[in-house]
Amino acid sequence: MHAVIQFTQSPIAIPEAHTVSREIGAIVEFHGIVRELEQGHPLAGLHYEAYEPMAVLQLERIFQQLHTQSPVAEVTFLHRLGWVPVGHASLYLRVRSSHRAEAFAFCSAAIEAMKRDVPIWKLQRPLPPDAC
Amino acid sequence: MHAVIQFTQSPIAIPEAHTVSREIGAIVEFHGIVRELEQGHPLAGLHYEAYEPMAVLQLERIFQQLHTQSPVAEVTFLHRLGWVPVGHASLYLRVRSSHRAEAFAFCSAAIEAMKRDVPIWKLQRPLPPDAC
Fold first, then answer.
1. Which of A56, A104, B2, B7 has the fewest C-beta atoms lying within 10 Å of its C-beta?
2. Model ipTM?
Protein backbone atom coordinates (compact mmCIF):
# COMPACT_ATOMS: atom_id res chain seq x y z
CA MET A 1 0.00 0.00 0.00
CA HIS A 2 1.28 3.43 -0.94
CA ALA A 3 0.12 6.16 1.47
CA VAL A 4 0.35 9.92 1.05
CA ILE A 5 -0.47 12.11 4.06
CA GLN A 6 -0.31 15.88 3.75
CA PHE A 7 -1.50 18.90 5.69
CA THR A 8 -1.75 22.22 3.92
CA GLN A 9 -2.66 25.81 4.73
CA SER A 10 -3.83 26.27 1.12
CA PRO A 11 -6.98 25.16 -0.69
CA ILE A 12 -6.83 21.44 -1.35
CA ALA A 13 -5.39 20.58 -4.77
CA ILE A 14 -6.09 16.99 -5.76
CA PRO A 15 -2.89 15.22 -6.81
CA GLU A 16 -2.42 12.65 -9.54
CA ALA A 17 -2.33 9.00 -8.58
CA HIS A 18 1.05 7.91 -7.24
CA THR A 19 0.96 4.29 -8.34
CA VAL A 20 0.45 2.88 -11.79
CA SER A 21 -1.36 -0.43 -11.98
CA ARG A 22 -3.60 -2.23 -14.43
CA GLU A 23 -5.27 -3.95 -11.48
CA ILE A 24 -6.98 -0.86 -10.02
CA GLY A 25 -10.71 -1.50 -10.41
CA ALA A 26 -12.15 0.97 -7.91
CA ILE A 27 -11.42 4.52 -6.83
CA VAL A 28 -13.38 6.07 -3.98
CA GLU A 29 -12.93 9.76 -3.22
CA PHE A 30 -14.31 11.65 -0.25
CA HIS A 31 -14.48 15.43 0.09
CA GLY A 32 -15.37 16.86 3.48
CA ILE A 33 -16.86 20.31 2.99
CA VAL A 34 -17.49 23.05 5.57
CA ARG A 35 -21.26 23.56 5.91
CA GLU A 36 -22.91 26.82 6.86
CA LEU A 37 -25.05 25.43 9.67
CA GLU A 38 -23.33 23.81 12.62
CA GLN A 39 -25.83 22.76 15.31
CA GLY A 40 -28.26 25.38 13.99
CA HIS A 41 -25.83 28.29 14.04
CA PRO A 42 -24.72 29.89 10.77
CA LEU A 43 -20.97 30.02 10.27
CA ALA A 44 -18.73 31.78 7.78
CA GLY A 45 -16.23 28.94 8.06
CA LEU A 46 -14.16 26.89 10.47
CA HIS A 47 -10.61 27.15 11.70
CA TYR A 48 -8.69 23.85 11.74
CA GLU A 49 -5.61 23.05 13.74
CA ALA A 50 -3.57 19.86 14.03
CA TYR A 51 -0.62 18.55 15.97
CA GLU A 52 0.98 17.46 12.74
CA PRO A 53 3.77 15.04 13.83
CA MET A 54 1.35 13.04 15.96
CA ALA A 55 -1.43 13.27 13.37
CA VAL A 56 0.81 11.79 10.67
CA LEU A 57 1.90 8.94 12.95
CA GLN A 58 -1.67 8.17 13.94
CA LEU A 59 -2.90 8.24 10.35
CA GLU A 60 -0.09 5.89 9.26
CA ARG A 61 -1.08 3.52 12.04
CA ILE A 62 -4.79 3.72 11.13
CA PHE A 63 -4.08 3.07 7.45
CA GLN A 64 -1.85 0.07 8.22
CA GLN A 65 -4.50 -1.41 10.52
CA LEU A 66 -7.29 -0.90 7.97
CA HIS A 67 -5.11 -2.38 5.25
CA THR A 68 -5.02 -5.72 7.08
CA GLN A 69 -8.84 -5.92 6.86
CA SER A 70 -9.40 -4.06 3.59
CA PRO A 71 -6.29 -4.31 1.42
CA VAL A 72 -5.96 -1.38 -0.96
CA ALA A 73 -3.25 -0.22 -3.34
CA GLU A 74 -3.05 3.47 -2.48
CA VAL A 75 -4.46 6.01 -0.05
CA THR A 76 -4.12 9.77 -0.39
CA PHE A 77 -5.05 11.94 2.59
CA LEU A 78 -5.04 15.73 2.43
CA HIS A 79 -6.25 17.98 5.23
CA ARG A 80 -6.47 21.74 5.07
CA LEU A 81 -5.55 23.71 8.20
CA GLY A 82 -6.24 27.31 9.17
CA TRP A 83 -9.35 29.11 8.00
CA VAL A 84 -11.64 27.15 5.66
CA PRO A 85 -14.68 29.05 4.37
CA VAL A 86 -18.13 27.50 4.01
CA GLY A 87 -18.34 25.51 0.78
CA HIS A 88 -14.63 24.67 0.71
CA ALA A 89 -13.06 21.28 1.44
CA SER A 90 -11.22 20.67 4.68
CA LEU A 91 -10.55 16.99 3.90
CA TYR A 92 -9.84 14.94 0.81
CA LEU A 93 -9.38 11.19 0.95
CA ARG A 94 -8.84 8.93 -2.06
CA VAL A 95 -8.54 5.16 -2.00
CA ARG A 96 -7.54 3.06 -5.02
CA SER A 97 -7.95 -0.71 -4.93
CA SER A 98 -8.75 -3.73 -7.04
CA HIS A 99 -12.28 -4.11 -5.70
CA ARG A 100 -14.90 -1.61 -4.61
CA ALA A 101 -15.86 -3.24 -1.30
CA GLU A 102 -12.37 -2.70 0.11
CA ALA A 103 -12.19 0.86 -1.20
CA PHE A 104 -15.52 1.87 0.38
CA ALA A 105 -14.77 0.09 3.67
CA PHE A 106 -11.28 1.58 3.95
CA CYS A 107 -12.39 5.10 3.07
CA SER A 108 -15.33 5.36 5.46
CA ALA A 109 -13.51 3.59 8.32
CA ALA A 110 -10.48 5.84 7.88
CA ILE A 111 -12.63 8.94 8.38
CA GLU A 112 -14.30 7.49 11.47
CA ALA A 113 -10.91 6.61 12.96
CA MET A 114 -9.50 10.02 12.06
CA LYS A 115 -12.36 11.80 13.85
CA ARG A 116 -11.84 9.58 16.90
CA ASP A 117 -8.06 9.26 17.22
CA VAL A 118 -6.18 11.93 15.27
CA PRO A 119 -5.27 15.29 16.85
CA ILE A 120 -7.10 17.57 14.42
CA TRP A 121 -9.44 20.18 15.87
CA LYS A 122 -12.02 22.49 14.37
CA LEU A 123 -12.77 25.75 16.12
CA GLN A 124 -16.34 26.89 15.71
CA ARG A 125 -15.71 30.44 16.95
CA PRO A 126 -12.68 31.39 14.96
CA LEU A 127 -11.23 34.80 14.48
CA PRO A 128 -12.82 36.63 11.56
CA PRO A 129 -11.39 35.39 8.27
CA ASP A 130 -9.42 38.56 7.62
CA ALA A 131 -7.62 38.10 10.93
CA CYS A 132 -6.47 34.56 10.15
CA MET B 1 -32.82 15.12 -4.65
CA HIS B 2 -31.43 16.06 -8.02
CA ALA B 3 -30.48 13.06 -10.16
CA VAL B 4 -28.47 13.00 -13.38
CA ILE B 5 -28.30 9.71 -15.32
CA GLN B 6 -26.31 9.53 -18.52
CA PHE B 7 -24.93 6.85 -20.81
CA THR B 8 -22.14 7.75 -23.18
CA GLN B 9 -20.08 6.08 -25.89
CA SER B 10 -17.21 8.46 -25.10
CA PRO B 11 -14.68 8.54 -22.26
CA ILE B 12 -16.37 9.70 -19.07
CA ALA B 13 -16.07 13.45 -18.50
CA ILE B 14 -16.93 14.44 -14.94
CA PRO B 15 -19.53 17.22 -14.90
CA GLU B 16 -19.78 20.14 -12.51
CA ALA B 17 -22.22 19.88 -9.63
CA HIS B 18 -25.80 20.64 -10.63
CA THR B 19 -27.04 22.03 -7.36
CA VAL B 20 -25.66 24.89 -5.31
CA SER B 21 -26.02 24.59 -1.57
CA ARG B 22 -24.15 25.77 1.49
CA GLU B 23 -25.39 22.65 3.29
CA ILE B 24 -23.34 20.10 1.33
CA GLY B 25 -20.89 18.60 3.81
CA ALA B 26 -19.90 15.40 2.03
CA ILE B 27 -19.12 14.36 -1.52
CA VAL B 28 -18.42 10.72 -2.33
CA GLU B 29 -17.21 9.80 -5.80
CA PHE B 30 -16.79 6.31 -7.21
CA HIS B 31 -14.90 5.40 -10.36
CA GLY B 32 -15.27 1.87 -11.67
CA ILE B 33 -12.20 1.03 -13.77
CA VAL B 34 -11.68 -1.86 -16.18
CA ARG B 35 -8.97 -4.17 -14.77
CA GLU B 36 -6.64 -6.27 -16.84
CA LEU B 37 -7.30 -9.55 -15.04
CA GLU B 38 -10.84 -10.93 -15.03
CA GLN B 39 -10.99 -14.32 -13.30
CA GLY B 40 -7.32 -14.83 -14.06
CA HIS B 41 -7.52 -14.05 -17.77
CA PRO B 42 -5.80 -10.95 -19.15
CA LEU B 43 -8.07 -8.62 -21.08
CA ALA B 44 -7.45 -5.61 -23.30
CA GLY B 45 -10.78 -4.16 -22.21
CA LEU B 46 -14.47 -4.84 -21.95
CA HIS B 47 -17.42 -4.09 -24.16
CA TYR B 48 -20.46 -2.67 -22.35
CA GLU B 49 -24.03 -2.66 -23.57
CA ALA B 50 -27.23 -1.40 -21.96
CA TYR B 51 -30.92 -1.35 -22.66
CA GLU B 52 -30.97 2.36 -22.01
CA PRO B 53 -34.67 3.21 -21.55
CA MET B 54 -35.12 0.45 -19.00
CA ALA B 55 -31.77 1.17 -17.35
CA VAL B 56 -32.70 4.82 -16.78
CA LEU B 57 -36.09 3.86 -15.31
CA GLN B 58 -34.51 1.29 -13.00
CA LEU B 59 -31.80 3.69 -11.85
CA GLU B 60 -34.42 6.39 -11.11
CA ARG B 61 -36.36 3.86 -9.07
CA ILE B 62 -33.22 2.70 -7.20
CA PHE B 63 -32.19 6.27 -6.40
CA GLN B 64 -35.66 7.18 -5.12
CA GLN B 65 -35.74 4.09 -2.90
CA LEU B 66 -32.28 4.74 -1.51
CA HIS B 67 -33.16 8.38 -0.89
CA THR B 68 -35.87 7.35 1.58
CA GLN B 69 -33.21 5.59 3.71
CA SER B 70 -30.21 7.80 2.97
CA PRO B 71 -31.41 11.28 1.97
CA VAL B 72 -28.93 13.05 -0.28
CA ALA B 73 -28.98 16.29 -2.26
CA GLU B 74 -27.66 15.12 -5.61
CA VAL B 75 -26.60 12.00 -7.45
CA THR B 76 -24.73 11.93 -10.74
CA PHE B 77 -24.48 8.63 -12.61
CA LEU B 78 -22.46 8.25 -15.79
CA HIS B 79 -21.88 4.92 -17.56
CA ARG B 80 -19.71 4.41 -20.58
CA LEU B 81 -20.92 1.97 -23.24
CA GLY B 82 -19.08 0.28 -26.09
CA TRP B 83 -15.42 -0.59 -25.86
CA VAL B 84 -13.66 0.49 -22.64
CA PRO B 85 -9.92 -0.25 -22.50
CA VAL B 86 -8.15 -1.50 -19.36
CA GLY B 87 -7.39 1.41 -17.03
CA HIS B 88 -10.35 3.49 -18.18
CA ALA B 89 -13.54 4.16 -16.24
CA SER B 90 -16.77 2.45 -17.20
CA LEU B 91 -18.74 3.97 -14.30
CA TYR B 92 -18.72 7.25 -12.42
CA LEU B 93 -21.04 7.89 -9.50
CA ARG B 94 -21.04 11.04 -7.36
CA VAL B 95 -23.25 11.67 -4.34
CA ARG B 96 -23.47 15.02 -2.57
CA SER B 97 -25.18 15.29 0.82
CA SER B 98 -25.11 17.08 4.14
CA HIS B 99 -23.53 14.19 6.02
CA ARG B 100 -20.99 11.56 5.04
CA ALA B 101 -22.84 8.50 6.36
CA GLU B 102 -25.70 9.02 3.91
CA ALA B 103 -23.32 9.72 1.02
CA PHE B 104 -21.31 6.53 1.59
CA ALA B 105 -24.40 4.40 2.16
CA PHE B 106 -26.19 5.74 -0.91
CA CYS B 107 -23.17 5.41 -3.19
CA SER B 108 -22.22 1.84 -2.30
CA ALA B 109 -25.84 0.60 -2.21
CA ALA B 110 -26.55 2.23 -5.58
CA ILE B 111 -23.71 0.26 -7.19
CA GLU B 112 -24.89 -3.00 -5.63
CA ALA B 113 -28.44 -2.39 -6.86
CA MET B 114 -27.19 -1.40 -10.30
CA LYS B 115 -25.21 -4.63 -10.65
CA ARG B 116 -28.26 -6.63 -9.56
CA ASP B 117 -31.19 -4.92 -11.25
CA VAL B 118 -30.13 -2.68 -14.13
CA PRO B 119 -29.84 -4.03 -17.68
CA ILE B 120 -26.16 -3.23 -18.29
CA TRP B 121 -23.93 -6.02 -19.55
CA LYS B 122 -20.21 -6.42 -19.96
CA LEU B 123 -18.89 -8.74 -22.61
CA GLN B 124 -15.63 -10.41 -21.72
CA ARG B 125 -14.86 -11.61 -25.23
CA PRO B 126 -15.45 -8.49 -27.23
CA LEU B 127 -14.44 -7.77 -30.78
CA PRO B 128 -10.93 -6.37 -31.04
CA PRO B 129 -10.84 -2.65 -30.21
CA ASP B 130 -10.25 -1.58 -33.78
CA ALA B 131 -13.42 -3.35 -34.87
CA CYS B 132 -15.64 -1.55 -32.35
1. B2
2. 0.93
